[in-house]
Amino acid sequence: MITHRQAKMRRRPACRLRTPPSLFPLPALAPLFYSVREPLLLIDSHLVLRAVNTAASHLLERHAHDLCGRPWRDAFMLERQLARDWRPNPLLQALATGCDQELTHDTHLICGDKRVGIRGKVLAINAGPRRFALLCLEPSGSTSESASVISRSENELLLQHLSRLNTVSELATGIAHEINQPLAAIMSFIQASLRLLADDNPDIERASEALAEAVSQTRRAAGILERLRAFVGRRGLQFEPVAINQVVVNALTLLSSKISSGGVRVSLSTEPALPVRADALQLEQVMVNLVRNAVEAMQVLPEESRLLQVSTRMLAGRVHVRVTDSGPGLPPAIQEQLFTRFFTTKADGMGLGLSISQTILEAAGGDLDASTTPSGGACFQFSLPTLNHKDVRNGSATA
Ligand code: ADP
Fold it and tell me: What single DSSP character describes residue 395?
């Protein structure tokens, strides 16, 4: 039976349920927060509810603007069925310790007369000096196990897509500059050929050469746009044989404007490698995350000391990829949390790059390892199993 409040909620357009993104306390996370299908509630260190997504608003049967700015206990309570109340409240625990907390299987959400069993976790978001608790819920019993697994993997893909969009939006100025160069060259080649053809004795040969140059610059601009389109596009996974060296070059090319404007020298060393079975775009995202982090970490150094080393190497049937920088390295407090979702030390960071990279690599049979080099910089490395020649010839890897 639908309650009066539920009926009222359904009549209102979905967009009215949102906290205006401009009021969202973590702007980099706003698109993600409002796109996730599961209920999400963001609580600050004063125990005040700061944002509620559409699904959470439906679950609590109240509009976001009625909830935000109020103490969270006014909106709902978390209760456990089993009499083991010595366990601390997971929300308070996440805020106090800065560590993620799992909700135990007997947790219930109480709001008004409503009492629902819930699963999920509380993520601690450490955003500089501020700390938030993000309550991520999956109402238990409302979805079958397989449906929730599907929606979890859909959310993972959405997260990866949003993270790529965020990367591209940060790179936008550099990319615009990169496209401007071939456009300016095209313009001058065409002007030159017009001049040559307008002459009393038109120099057809040189005009053709200038036009051929214009065509090749047009291809260059189209190539930049194509790479960008492929990177921001949203599509299903395509597991196929992937040439890792090409992935490395694509990522470095995509980031070329950030690398050069960041004053970073690049040393690239690749060994011929057998293909790996993976999704090419996902691997490119991993490389983009690692290189981008390295470039950003080195900005605290004088320009002449900024060195990025990228290498690939074949060893025992696996391809090993290493990204090393000469930045400040990974102090233990950072190293411990590197792969924790939403952990960031950057003012505009999302804290998703490394956790997403780890998930992608694990799905492809790899691992991601981070360490500080003897000279003090950070080194991120991973290895992936390669396909043997027979697999590639038979096409079995593309299944
Ligand atoms: P974001 O880049 O949005 O902060 P990431 O998950 O990619 O998210 O990185 C998390 C944190 O790990 C960064 O904020 C930074 O503190 C640390 N980190 C990542 N790469 C490096 C690196 N190469 N050198 C030093 N610190 C790093």
Answer: T
**Residues 19-59: pLDDT tens digits?**
444 467 777 677 778 777 788 899 999 999 998 988 888 88
Domain boundaries, the chain: 4-139, 146-232, 239-391
The domain 4-139 having CATH identifier 3.30.450.20: the answer here is yes
Our mutation pick for probing the ligand 1 site, out of 291, 306, 354, 382, counting the most ligand atoms within 8 A of Cβ, is 354
Token pair belonging to 270: 């690749």
pTM for this entry:
0.67
Ligand 1 pocket check for 179: Cβ under 6 Å: no
The residue contributing the CA closest to ligand 1 atom 14 is 344
The region, left, alpha or beta by phi > 0 then psi within -120 to 50, assigned to residue 323 is: beta
Ligand 1: distance of its center to the CA of 171 in Å?
A: 17
CATH architecture of 239-391: 2-Layer Sandwich (3.30)
**Alpha helices (H) along the chain:** 4-11, 30-35, 54-60, 64-67, 72-75, 90-97, 145-198, 204-232, 244-254, 256-261, 280-297, 332-335, 353-363, 389-394
Q: Which of 20-29, 139-148, 386-395 has the lowest mean pLDDT?
A: 139-148
